[in-house]
TrEMBL record:
It comes from freshwater metagenome. It holds the Pfam family p450. SUPFAM superfamilies: Cytochrome P450. The keyword Mitochondrion does not apply. InterPro entries: Cyt_P450, Cyt_P450_B, Cyt_P450_CS, Cyt_P450_sf. Keywords: Heme, Iron, Metal-binding, Monooxygenase, Oxidoreductase. PROSITE patterns: CYTOCHROME_P450. The keyword Phosphoprotein does not apply. Belongs to the cytochrome P450 family. One of its GO terms (molecular function) is iron ion binding. This is Unannotated protein.
Amino acid sequence: MSTADILDTRDPRVVANPYDIYRELRASRDLVWSERLGLWLAPTHETANATLRTKSLGRIYEPQEPFDQWEIFNWLHSDSILDSEPPKHTRLRALVQKAFTPGRIAALEPNIIDICNGLLDKAQAKLQAQGSFDVLADFAEPLPVLVIADLLGVPREKANDLRRWSQDIVKMYEYGRTREQELAAQKSGFEFSSYIAELAALRKLEPKSDLITALVEVEEQGEKLNEHELIAMCVLLLNAGHEASVNGFGNGMVAMFRNSDQLDLMKSSARKNTVTALEEMMRFDSPLHMFERTATSETVIGKTTVQVGQKVVAMLGSANRDEEVFENPDTFDVTREHNPHIAFGAGIHFCIGAPLARLEMQNSLPMLFERFPNLQLAGEPVQRPTFVLRGWETIPAKN
């Protein structure tokens, strides 16, 4: 067995703890070939960062076959910022950033606080009635969905549909997915795109102050988003924003519960440590562990030459534990100052929703500890059986 093939993304033991294997993969300080996955692994901070930033490594979307069954799902990806490269990516990002401005994001803060208070009220009522609540289901998971629904201009009563569509679609990023999961992704892609298309058509006739209206109206040097690009952007905002926020928060909270000294520190001074804590939550157990790129020309990463057509995976979860970059990388430290993690990516594909995810966590994290100053686990958390998108299914808590 080659070094890389100790990484079996379908092995429950590896899903539970991939970090010992990551340490072995980093030992060569270079790319490592995985026969099992048929691609190069970039496990160090240097190689993963280079994989994300090197222009000859493109994010090339490979259509699902048969095409007629996957038509909508295919253009949802090929027409999105995530799965396109310059010059198309440059045009899309310029248009989207003109609508999804720092000012628009900052203006969401009062709304985020209001949503947090409402969710915490319900969690407190559940705690009083049942003796515990779920940090994920009752707080971390609905928060970004409700925020993005309000941002886009989607009625809040559609939040459950948004969440289900997102969860179905992102399962397609996993290795070894089932046929049942593929069919669910097809169905959700159709339902989600149809709903956004209807809403966009309505906003053309009746503009509002929401992001969908801004995306409909935005123009840059005579360029506008076509219908597929607009819908793909809305779907990406939900999927990426929802998954990164939920899993970053959930993974960080489990790490905190398992490190009592850090939990006590947050209980005593959550506001003081929030900024460094949220970055450490994203670093220590990153929500996204693998991001694929494909060589469009012969490319050298580290000491390895990657041939045209070969894939390289930036291993974000491993890079963020690199012992040559982070002091005591396997220690969870909410006061960590030097923290150049790449959990949100790097280069032209740096997560466009990162400022929103940070704003949500900057508010939700201290508010959780202020409402529940004696927060502790009420049972063993249950982990999701997924590797690429790493997270938890339930995190029972009490006060």
